[in-house]
Amino acid sequence: MSTDLRDLYQEIILEHSRKPKNAGVLEDPTAEAQGNNPLCGDRITVYVKLDGDRIEDARFDARGCAISVASASMMTESLKGKTLDEAEEAFGRFNTQMTGKEAPELAEDDELSALMGVRDFPTRIKCATLPWHTLRAALKGAGDTQITTE
Ligand code: ZN
How many domains would you assign to the chain? Predict the structure, then answer.
């Protein structure tokens, strides 16, 4: 990764962690789940409101590090309006990019790429994937579920 790109990505993460999008409790969610990353101490609750099989709204309430908050902020932004199938696809793509052996393709116009710098710090990968696992648990459980990353 070039130094310029790394700086740009750090800027994006800082911006999202300082002023997270979709932070706060969602009233009357269709589904919610709590996630816990004991390695870092991140705790997050993700709320989803569905309209049929489409994600009408997604919010989160987090006590966590900059990376987990930025990841949750970007995730909720990118998934609003998506169908459940599209969300599952996005989860798979993000998870593979984050944990796969191959270096992911980076796109300057895709904010989620900003998180890929975390790949260099294996203990922080769970911070970035926690919101996604939690959202997925909410969608699968369609109720109040709890997950803990191992
Ligand atoms: Zn963390």
Answer: 1
